[in-house]
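Schema walkthrough. Field components (list of strings):
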Amino acid sequence: MEPDQKAGPAHDAYLVRPIGTVRSPRSVPRHDHWGDVSAVIELDPAQLQPDAVTGLEQFSHLEVVFHFHLVPESATVTGACHPRGRTDLPRLGILAQRLKERPNRLGVSRCELAGVDGLTLHVRGLDALDGTPVLDVKPHQQLFQPAPEAVREPAWLRAAMSAYYF
Amino acid sequence: MEPDQKAGPAHDAYLVRPIGTVRSPRSVPRHDHWGDVSAVIELDPAQLQPDAVTGLEQFSHLEVVFHFHLVPESATVTGACHPRGRTDLPRLGILAQRLKERPNRLGVSRCELAGVDGLTLHVRGLDALDGTPVLDVKPHQQLFQPAPEAVREPAWLRAAMSAYYF
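Field assembly_structure (string):
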C-alpha cells in the first residue's frame, strides 16, 4: 500500500518522566491569589546530577513545565468552553485559554526563584498544587519574550483574571 | 514492606500525544535568526474539534510546547555543560539553560500568531524545525509574565544569544 502523503506523518506518543515534585501549602484547586504562595520544587536526584542547577541562582525567574496530574485524561476538552466555567464570558477554544483540562495536561508557569539549595528550589508565585509532578525547569530569559508593547489580548479575559496573582 | 516515606512518591511516567506538527522552511538545526521565519502549525483534526481555536485570533502571540524529536533520549544531559558548546562560556546546569538535550526533551517557545485558518495556525518567529511534534498551544497572556524590570539574568548569556531572533 502506498503511504498516504496527504495525511502527513502520524507522530508517536512518547513517555515523559517527572524530574521533581512541587511542595506547596496549596493542595486544593483555586483560581486566584497565587502571587504570595511560597513553595518548593524538589528535584529528583535519581533523574538529575547535582550540577543540573549550576548557575540557576543567576536567574530571578523560572519557567516550570508540569503535569496537571489531578485532571483525568477523560476530562480533557478538545473543543471550546467558557473560561473558568463562567457563562457570562465568551466561549474560547481550549487552545485559546490556559485551562488545565487540556490535551496532554501540560502546564507552563513562570515563578520567582527565591533560592537554590542543592536540588531543592524555593519559589514564589508558582500556580501548581502540592504534589504536582514537574517535567522541566527552564530559566526565564527576557530575550524569549515578546515585547510587552507588541502583545495584543482580549481585555475582557485580562479583566476576568485580574486577581490571579494578587 | 513499609513504604519509604523519605523518598516521597515516585511519579509515574505518562504518555503525551502530539496534537499537531510544525511545517517550517527550516529543517536543519541552527542557532540564530529565527525572528523572520514564517511557519505553520498544522493541528490534528483527529485530536481536536474545529472550535479548539475559537477566539485564538484575539491574541497576538502563542506559547507552543513541543517535542525536540530529533534528540535521542540517550543524548540528554542530566548535569551541566557549556551553553551552545562554547567552552569560552561558563558551564550551566541543564535546568539553567534552554538547551534541547534536556530531560523530557520539551521545548517551550513564544511566537507571533500571524493568522488562523481552521486548524492551521500561521506563525512567525517559532524556533522549531520542520516536522516538530506540537504537544500544546496556549495563548500568550501578559498577566502570566514577570514584569521585565523584575527580571534578573546573566548579562554574558544574553550577549551570547543576541542574534537569536534578529
